[in-house]
Design goal:
- It is a single chain.
- The protein is of the alpha+beta class.
- Helices cover 38% and strands 16% of the residues.
- It has two domains: 10-120, no CATH class; 122-132 and 141-225, no CATH class.
- The strands form three sheets. It has a four-stranded mixed sheet with strand order 4-5-7-6. It has a three-stranded antiparallel sheet with strand order 1-2-3.
- Helix 4 (157-184) packs across helix 5, helix 4 crosses helix 6 and helix 5 (190-204) runs antiparallel to helix 6 (209-223).
- Residues 105-118 have low confidence and may be disordered.
Length: 225
Amino acid sequence: MSRVLAKLVGDGRLVRVSKGVYAKTRINKFTGKLAPAATFESIAAETFRKLHIDVSHGRLAREYNAGTTTQIPMDGVVSTGARRINRKIKVGNRTIKYEKARPTVATTSPPCLQMGASIVAVPHDFPWDTTPAALSGTQPKLAGRMIDGKFVAGLTATERFERWNLCEDLAQQLVAVARKDAAKHPQHSHDETLQRVRQGMERKGWVEVVEMDWLIKRLRIMLGW
């Protein structure tokens, strides 16, 4: 079995995440090269779930999601409480780091983030309503849907997580694209490069306008621009 895994890793069809843990790859739709088939955060969360390791958000992630800071956490930091964990979890050049301090205020995760996946948190500034409805008439109106007997305006927590996961995945894939474009056109400013990336994305039609705004802001941070 180890030979089979080694061959799959060597062929680029799998990447080693941790001891005994591997993740599938796929063709990056922008670069045409093999890359992990999910985001770093999702792979790490699934790894913790499969290993039955209970973790929670790191301090910076909690502060960001609470709106007390605008600094988006770049490192994958999780809180392990009083438990000591030494297992190395790495995807590409990103590695999970551990904090021992447990949150002083109890927090809950959306339903789709339960079962050990609490490392994944939708940023507070990711939009809840991605496609505002245009309703006729002069009176103010609120568009919504009836879900499980409840009136819901905008996205549900699960839908919002799925939309964020898509945008985060695209942003991570676009890092290489932006760097390549910047190297090819050194006369362009960072803003011009990001605008070129945005225009290419807009032609795809994969995300809504407000999601694109967030995606480009996220990409800028990931690039350090």
